[in-house]
Amino acid sequence: MLGLLETGSGFWSAVVWVILVLVIGSLVYYIRNKGEKSYKKNTEQDKPFISGNPELSKEGSHISASHIYWGFTEALKGYYNPLVKMHTGDINDYSGWMVIITVVILIIVGVRR
Amino acid sequence: MKLNKYLERSLWVFHLNTGSCNGCDIEIVAGLTPRYDLERFGIKLVGSPKHADVLLVTGPVTHKMADRVKRVYEQTPEPKVVIVVGTCGTSGGVFYNSYNLLGPVDKIIPVDIYVPGCPARPEAIINGVLQAWIKLEKLREGMKAAPVK
């Protein structure tokens, strides 16, 4: 059980793992002990420093991935706005679009024949 | 080797402008330039009150800055010392009783050292910082005797 486990691309040993946990744990405990002892919990010292401004809610301060594309979507808003409106979230609308596009494709195929 | 008992460790200062005209702020920066070179004693400005021993405040407190001053003061770890640089922060100066001011700094947070002047000379600011250092070391000694819970 405590033997060496050979995986082909390396090895794993429970004894080495326990030793590492103890060494790293002791190191973390030592560094934590060297920290500021006068620190007060549940006060402003708990909160981040934002140039003296109050901390916003997580929802209010969240930067989503789409913010990266802000310039792109702003420049192409003439194209994006109708697309966004078409995405109503209603399955009946999407089925309707599928029927309409299928009809259009069938007509095109029929006319070409 | 310690130079003296007041040079146990570096003094980190957080500078806060609560409505100053920038005159005192320029003099604070002058204290860090090669002519006075405060950094050779380990005194330096830091970017967060969480790292600071001393809060250096310039200017009278405007209404919009009042709760920010309180927040920054509360975020500064103990032991801490507050220095007010300039006549405006000390008493309101020429802006005393102005409609857009809440008042001098000591109306909002406790102040330990006052450095008057319009603007205060770098020598006066350096003297104020040294007074703060002495007070801080005494506070530290007090905290060692009775640690904060």
From TrEMBL, chain A:
Q: Which organism is it from?
A: Candidatus Infernicultor aquiphilus
Q: What residues form the membrane-spanning segments?
A: 12-31, 94-111
Which keywords annotate this record?
Membrane, Transmembrane, Transmembrane helix
Question: What name has this protein been given in UniProt?
Answer: Hydrogenase
The superkingdom of the source organism is Bacteria
TrEMBL record, chain B:
Q: Which InterPro entries match?
A: Complex_I_20kDa-like (IPR052375), NADH_UbQ_OxRdtase-like_20kDa (IPR006137), NADH_UQ_OxRdtase_20Kd_su (IPR006138)
Looking up SUPFAM superfamilies in the UniProt record yields: HydA/Nqo6-like (SSF56770)
Keyword Metal-binding carried by entry: yes
Gene3D superfamilies in the record, alphabetically? 3.40.50.12280
Cofactor names: [4Fe-4S] cluster
**Residues in domain NADH:ubiquinone oxidoreductase-like 20kDa subunit?**
21-131
Print the keywords alphabetically.
4Fe-4S, Iron, Iron-sulfur, Metal-binding, NAD
Coiled-coil residue spans: none
Q: Name one Pfam family in it.
A: Oxidored_q6
One GO molecular function term? NADH dehydrogenase (ubiquinone) activity
Q: Which family does it belong to?
A: Belongs to the complex I 20 kDa subunit family.
The record's NCBIfam families line, in alphabetical order, gives:
nuoB_fam (TIGR01957), PRK06411.1 (NF005012)
| Listed name of the protein | Hydrogenase
